[in-house]
Specification:
heterotrimer; A alpha+beta (550); B mainly alpha (371); C mainly alpha (305); A: alpha+beta; D-Maltodextrin-Binding Protein, domain 2; 16 strands; B: mainly alpha; flat
């Protein structure tokens, strides 16, 4: 038996034998009734984790609806332990979440199919387009039309929802079922909590990382050209924004395998507020000083920092870069840069949430799966200090990964609390989706989610699933190093944060399209932000901003 | 034209009288009683909602049913009270009552929030802010860019009209495969603007693999970019809009052409007029009423153009393709700025009503000079 | 002789030549426009059978340039290999399809019924409502068409919440009726104006009431116009997105919202988008083929006053 386990844990096992061995192990255990219960469970769990990662297997195309239903069925064990079959007969739940193509709710539906069958509950779905999500949630809160029981939501809205008592406090049995201690550091409290109560089942980790093309930066021809053109330093992956800038000019007009090359892909087009994160990622190394946690607003007055020299520099660099990018780039939103361009082979560098990495090999749109590398966001040789109003030049470049959005979580609404059966059903459904094993599958395949638990960083499991070891190590490192960075730039969890982002996007694109100078653009944004702060209420915003900085 | 006086010979003469005074009194009584009951229920429910009294319904839905019953009683009362005249009133009553009841609350409530600073994220809810929103509007350059764009979008209706007219004339000829062409030309109108935005705006106009870009490259445009230059972006948006709406104008005009009396056209031909002459002297003037109907209807739709812009460009580049509605939509949806967004919408509504009134007046005057 | 005959010949030949030219030009324009109308639809349908590589290479012709794949339809559960299995997206798609159908037909019917009545009243009788006369009432109906939907969004949300009409097909039918009613009234007014009053007067002499004359004499004549108004209303309601996105959530959701929500944060699966778009327009294409004649015929009766 132990031999078997050892073989399974060892790396170079091809998919089929791993699967065979796993089922064989389980079968023999049942047959001979050997081994203690705990051992049996451990092995069974490992068995399940290996098994689900084979569905459909890396390189076998995007998972189908049937695949996902199967994964949901295999991961039902924790639910079986806490819920009797048919226990929720007649209970009707409503789930509100995103309906991005084949992701989010589409995935949840299929993953919950087995849960629905086992417990007898029914689930109604509110599917929202990404752009409709924020307003729908805001409208529900403002007009008191909370017509859902379970909610997929990002941490930025916790102030709006948990702060107003709209969410249900997580029962202890759920905490045990989903093993919350497994969460990566930055997803632990205070994220997911409000006034000391826990509300959130995290299913996603979010940070912007840096994606680049290994073939472009490994090309000897280009290296020779770089040296010939008098490029500074060795040719290779840029590690500071200053180097990125030099590389953008160098790559413009060059070709690789007959395809035109472009440098870093900026995304100037508004994207419902989400596009502002991409300017944030360009600015964080300039604007996030290690001495202070605040980088968007002055924590005392909510005066915007967005028109300080650090942000102005970032805004100006985007403007300089746009002419060096493909035609029509002014009309490219992050969705375009990440998926239509980068994954499809246009552009050499781009910033995105980790999805680009997990999609590089499993998304049907991707054609660059083998030539993509990952790192944390580039740094900067100097960093702006708001306290002194000077640029500081640290000995090492200043790095500051942008922990944009802090990931999706599943929340249960307090409206279910009056009905104990419904409350248990809602939490059970949420816990099923946030399950430890199930989440391994969702972060490995296109689902909209990225690694969020320490157990997701077990390279062996990924390799057994068919990933190339160097690739996955590189990817998971970039994620882990972003999550755990001491100088990370943290998203403020204040009400209306997307309004700030959205007006900024409009001003940015207008400015870039018209060729307005960066300082004026930044001043316009700052003025608009001030008026939003006044509209929402300055005092409460200051208090909440300080709280969110910790 | 809609507001041309109804053709006199085609209208019934004034009301026949002959309803006894008892019937009048009875009718009035019925209506008064029903109205009183309706208001009483409204009052009870309002007090219940305000937590003043316990009796009442969980929501306002039952009031809706009571309103329906009231409408029926009102109809009966009118017939009893006015006899023949009451019968006549019944024709228009359902549409009037329906429209009034659907828009009265949204209009009043909309006007109210237009004067508040209601931001959905604000913890203090909505506060009266007087004319602040209007003052902000005056300085909002995005809004004025959008207003300017509306001028172009509305003018582009004339281009659509020209193309639609040409197609309608061609379809009215003796041609082979007429049925085929007519069905095919109608198809674009069937597509939802959302689908058009994606499959044309985002897929066909894609700069690398979209067929429109490929074609543009073959025609000598090296680096086709459909949404970068403000005017090209506007034209791209317009072209999609034309694609969807030309069929609508075309069928209106085609219907007009088919209704033209054949004898007149024949007589023109006998007189030896060339096709060109007979078109300008006979067909075009005869089609003028239909043409104006088509253009005015289209302008009304055009004033609300939004779906395609929201999906394809979100106003890019820098607001150059924004329509007023698409800009308000962004203010509203992405920034939850309900007070200001509604103020913009109400202001725009006033502008439109003034514009439409002038337009209708002008077309009327113009028509009279022609006929 | 030779001085007089050639011009005649020449003129004749010239006419023929011009006739041919006109014919050629006519067909050239017709074919060109047919291509413009059909290509995007062709593009949508073929894209639903493509995989990523075929899309990034801009392939146009199936079988010749690429091998069609059921991928797009599979993700909807509508491909041959998934049609028998249980599929969550298909359930969703069918539910929305039914809702769209029900709502579009319901709103169009309601609008045609009350719109025709109002239009008849407005053409035949002189109403007075305070200072308002027929002309003003007509303009008032028309002005409902002018209202930008965003102005009504939040008020409608609040109103519907109070009336418990949120996420109900009835609620959606009511809003859609409101939006198409002006067009129906407009079209039907033109219809009724062309019907000679004598027919009704004759019926009245025979002892018929106003309503009797309306239902037995006028409506049958105006039927083609009503069909045209009905079809136009169905099309507009079927494609409506804004109110559908605002006022529905689970039970009454319609197709355009499903198309729009395919646009996510993680790229676009063109094949799925194309498959949904194609499936959503299919019923309307059938309508166009079967009923096109009715639309034009119906509008034609009222076209010239």
């Amino acid at each position: 038996m132990s031999d078997l386990k050892a073989t399974m844990l060892k790396k170079p096992v091809n998919r089929r034998t791993a699967l065979k061995a796993a089922t064989g192990a389980a079968a023999s255990m049942y047959a001979f009734g050997v081994a203690g219960k705990s051992y049996q469970r451990a092995l069974a769990q490992h068995d399940i984790r290996a098994q689900i990662l084979q569905i459909p297997g890396v390189g076998a195309g995007q998972p189908t609806d049937a695949d996902m239903q199967r994964v949901g069925e295999l991961c039902l064990e924790p639910t079986r332990a806490n819920v009797q079959p048919g226990e929720f007969n007649g209970v009707e739940l409503t789930f509100m979440g995103l309906n991005n193509q084949n992701l989010h709710n589409i995935v949840f539906r299929a993953l919950l199919a087995a849960w629905v069958e086992y417990t007898g509950a029914t689930i109604n779905w509110i599917d929202l387009a990404q752009a409709d999500y924020n307003p729908r949630l805001q409208q529900a809160i403002a007009t008191g039309t909370v017509d859902f029981d379970i909610l997929e939501m990002g941490a930025p809205f916790e102030g709006d929802v948990c702060g107003q008592g709209l969410a249900s406090v997580m029962p202890d049995w759920v905490k045990d079922q989903i093993d919350m201690d497994d969460y990566v550091g930055y997803l632990q409290a205070p994220v997911g909590t409000w006034d000391g109560n826990t509300y959130r089942i995290s299913i996603d980790g979010d940070a912007h990382n840096f994606n680049y093309r290994t073939d472009v930066f490994g090309s000897e021809d280009l290296a020779a050209e770089w040296a010939a053109s008098g490029g500074e330093g060795d040719y290779g992956v840029p590690r500071t924004w200053q180097q990125v800038k030099a590389m953008n000019s160098f790559l413009y007009g060059k070709e690789l395998d007959g395809q035109p090359l472009y440098g870093y892909l900026d995304a100037p087009k508004p994207w419902g507020g989400f596009g502002f994160y991409f300017l944030g990622s360009r600015a964080s190394a300039y604007a996030k000083h290690p001495d202070s946690k605040a980088w968007l607003f002055d924590p005392e007055t909510m005066a915007p920092y967005v028109n300080n020299p650090a942000w102005v520099r970032a805004i100006g660099e985007v403007a300089e870069n746009i002419p060096l990018l493909p035609p029509d780039q002014i009309n490219a939103d992050p969705n375009t840069t990440g998926f239509s361009q980068f994954l499809a082979g246009t552009g050499s560098m781009c910033t995105w949430w980790g999805d680009v990495g997990s999609n590089a090999k499993t998304n049907d749109s991707s054609i660059i799966g083998d030539v993509v590398g990952f790192d944390i966001l580039p740094g900067s040789v100097d960093v702006y200090n708001n306290a002194t109003g000077e640029w500081d030049t640290p000995a090492e470049p200043n790095y500051s990964p942008n922990e944009a959005y802090i990931g999706w979580g599943v929340y249960v609404m307090s409206s279910v609390d009056s009905d104990p059966v419904k409350q248990k059903a809602a939490w059970s459904a949420a816990a099923h989706l946030g399950g430890k094993d199930l989440s391994l599958w969702t972060v490995a395949y296109p689902s909209g989610f990225q690694p969020s638990r320490n157990s997701h960083f077990n390279i062996e499991e990924w390799v057994n699933a068919g990933y190339d070891e160097a690739f996955i190590q590189n990817y998971l490192d970039s994620e882990a190093n972003s999550y755990n960075h001491p100088n990370a730039a943290i998203e403020p969890r204040i009400p209306g944060i997307f309004q700030y982002y959205s007006i900024a996007e409009d001003e940015l694109q207008r400015g870039w399209a018209d060729g307005t100078d960066a300082q004026t653009i930044a001043d316009n944004i700052a003025a608009a932000w001030e008026s939003i702060t006044d509209e929402i209420g300055r005092e409460s915003q200051v208090a909440l901003y300080q709280a969110s900085l910790g | 034209m809609s507001d041309a006086p109804a053709v006199a010979t085609n209208t019934w003469d004034a009301a026949p009288g002959g309803v006894s005074s008892e019937r009048k009194r009875l009718g009035r009584l019925i209506i008064a009683a029903a109205t009183l009951a309706l208001f009483a229920m409204l009052l009870v429910q309002a007090l219940h909602t305000a937590d003043r009294i316990d009796t009442g319904f969980a929501n306002w839905r039952p009031i809706l049913y009571i309103y329906l019953i009231w409408a029926v009683v009102l109809a009966v009362g009118l017939v009893v009270m006015r006899g023949e005249l009451g019968h006549r009133a019944l024709f228009i009553l359902p549409a009037v009552l329906f429209t009034v009841s659907m828009v009265v609350f949204p209009t009043i409530f909309g006007l109210y929030i237009a004067f508040t600073d209601w931001n959905l994220s604000s913890t203090s809810g909505r506060n009266f802010s007087g004319l602040d929103n209007l003052r902000k509007l005056v300085h909002d350059k995005f809004f004025w860019t959008a207003m300017e764009n509306m001028v172009y979008y509305v003018l582009s209706v004339l281009v659509q009209f020209a193309i639609a007219f040409l197609l309608a004339v061609l379809l009215n000829q003796e041609i082979r495969g007429r049925k085929f062409f007519r069905v095919v030309f109608l198809l674009p109108f069937m597509l939802s603007p959302v689908a058009v935005s994606w499959m044309i705006g985002k897929s066909m106009f894609e700069t690398r693999f979209g067929p429109a870009a490929t074609l543009a490259r073959k025609l000598g445009w090296d680096q086709p970019a459909f949404f970068t230059d403000p005017w090209i972006a506007r034209l791209s948006i317009m072209s999609m809009d034309w694609w969807v709406w030309i069929p609508f104008m075309m069928i209106l005009l085609l219907a007009g052409l088919q209704a033209l009396p054949h004898e007149i056209l024949e007589s023109a031909r006998v007189d030896g007029a060339t096709a060109w002459q007979s078109f300008w002297q006979m067909t075009f003037p005869l089609l003028l009423p239909v043409s104006i109907t088509a253009v005015v209807l289209r302008i009304i739709f055009q004033l609300k153009i939004a779906d395609i812009i929201i999906t394809v460009t979100s106003g890019a580049p820098g607001g150059a393709t924004d329509s007023v509605t698409s800009f308000i939509y962004r203010e509203y949806r992405d920034r939850s700025n309900v007070g200001y967004g509604t103020a913009l919408a109400e202001f725009y509504l006033v502008v439109i009503i003034v514009f439409m009134t002038v337009l209708l007046w002008l077309t009327n005057k113009w028509m009279r000079r022609f006929t | 002789m030779s001085a007089t005959t050639p011009p005649v010949h020449y003129r004749h030949a010239g006419r023929n030549w011009r006739r041919v030219l006109t014919r050629t030009l006519t067909y050239a324009i017709l074919l060109f426009w047919a291509a413009i109308c059909l290509f995007p639809i062709y593009w949508t349908i073929t894209t639903s059978f493509k995989v990523a590589v075929d899309i990034t290479q801009g392939h146009l012709v199936p079988w010749l340039q690429y091998q069609p794949d059921w991928k797009g339809w599979r993700s909807l559960g509508l491909s041959p290999d998934t049609i028998r299995e249980f599929s969550t997206p298909r359930e969703e798609f069918l539910k929305r399809f039914r809702n769209s159908l029900f709502v579009a037909l319901g709103a169009a019917s309601l609008a045609v019924v009350i719109g025709s009545m109002a239009a008849y009243g407005l053409t035949r009788f002189n109403y007075r409502f305070g200072p308002f006369r027929n002309k003003d009432i007509s303009f008032w109906f028309l002005s409902q068409l002018i209202l930008p939907p965003v102005a009504l969004a939040l008020p409608f949300l609040v109103l519907y919440k109070e009336l418990a009409l949120l996420d109900s097909r009835t609620g959606l039918i009511l809003v859609y009726t409101l939006t198409v009613l002006p067009i129906v009234i407009w079209i039907m007014r033109d219809q009724f104006q062309t019907i000679p009053l004598e027919l009704e007067q004759a019926a009245m002499v025979d002892g018929s009431t106003v309503w009797g004359a309306f239902t037995r004499i006028v409506l049958p004549i105006a039927l083609p116009g009503m069909v045209a108004a009905f079809i136009l209303s169905v099309i507009l309601c079927w494609n409506e997105y804004f109110f559908a996105a605002l006022l529905t959530s689970t039970k009454a959701t319609t197709l355009p919202v499903m198309v729009a929500s395919q646009t996510g944060s993680q790229g676009i699966n063109w094949w799925t988008m194309a498959a949904i778009s194609a499936a959503a327009i299919l019923p309307l294409i059938v309508i166009a083929i079967l009923l096109e004649r009715w639309i034009v015929k119906g509008l034609a009766t009222g076209a010239v006053k």
